[in-house]
Write a structure and sequence with these properties.
Strand order of the largest sheet: 6-7-8-3-9-10
CATH architecture of the largest domain: 3-Layer(aba) Sandwich
CATH class of the largest domain: Alpha Beta
CATH superfamily of the largest domain: P-loop containing nucleotide triphosphate hydrolases
Helix content: 25-40%
Order of helices and strands: EEEHEEHEHHHEHEHEEHH
Number of helices: 9
Largest sheet: 6 strands, mixed
Distance between the termini: 27 Å
């Protein structure tokens, strides 16, 4: 189903099967299925309220799916009849394979950048502080923040905070990176630096699910594009098809509004 830049025999990094999510009587996701093989960059696009962020949050079990199946690196998440995870330790382990980057950074404001990046490796994964620190310094250098390691988030621009959030997500060496509109809260002049970091991750073969409103970026970076409309996949395919020859009238109208 997914158009890869990688070899066709690559195993699936993540599979989402018939995912449903309701909030009370409002059904937000209505049976979404998609998969990403190792090295795929799946861009998820759609209008406000289409279910994009909910899909990503359910993938990481920040929201509990109402029904459906999620498989990460070949391991299916065990779910109880009420839709909640049946095994809390399994969820914690699987979450450690999914690096999540939010719209609003979600850095710990009372900790320096270095402390932000080493927190989960040290206190959740049991990595030694020295080893975690060495890795954190490499990652902060990679995102252009090596000179800010002792700085608190409040003293950074939004773009710097988001790049720090990417470094924090990478610190657990995730199977899949999940990006939820990573540039939507940024001033226009700060967007480019964050997109460059994400582009570098794509170029090195990182598997990613990317919710974005940056259509040009999605076209250039994604191996597969999914268009959500009212909680369903309206159309999906390689970027050249989605952006140059969309079949769905709804997708055609959407692209006219965002170009």
């Amino acid at each position: 189903m997914t158009a890869n830049r990688t070899a066709g025999d690559q195993p699936a990094a993540i599979q989402i099967v018939d995912l449903h999510k309701s909030f009370g009587t409002v059904e937000v996701l209505k049976g979404v299925s998609l998969d990403a093989r190792k090295g795929d960059v799946v861009a998820i696009i759609g209008g406000s309220g289409s279910g994009k962020s909910t899909l990503l949050r359910c993938t990481n079990f920040l929201e509990m799916p109402s029904s459906g199946k999620i498989v990460v690196d070949g391991e299916e998440v065990a779910v109880a009849p009420d839709g909640r995870p049946a095994n809390r330790r399994q969820i914690e382990r699987i979450r450690s394979r999914l690096g999540m980057v939010f719209q609003s950074f979600n850095l710990w404001t009372h900790r320096t950048l270095l402390e932000n990046v080493i927190e989960v490796p040290v206190h959740v994964l049991g990595v030694s502080r020295d080893q975690a620190t060495e890795r954190a310094l490499e990652l902060l250098d990679r995102v252009g923040l090596r000179d800010k390691v002792e700085t608190y988030p409040a003293y950074l621009s939004g773009g710097q905070q988001q790049r720090a959030a990417i470094a924090r997500a990478l610190a657990v060496d995730p199977t899949v990176m999940l990006f939820d509109e990573p540039t939507s809260a940024l001033d226009p002049e700060l967007v480019g630096d964050v997109l460059r970091v994400i582009r570098d991750l794509a170029d090195e073969g990182r598997t990613m699910l990317l919710v974005t409103h940056e259509m040009k970026f999605a076209r250039e970076v994604a191996s597969h594009v999914v268009y959500l409309f009212e909680g369903r996949i309206e159309e999906q395919g390689p970027p050249e098809q989605i952006f140059s020859n969309p079949r769905s009238e709804r997708l055609q109208q959407f692209l006219q509004t965002v170009h």
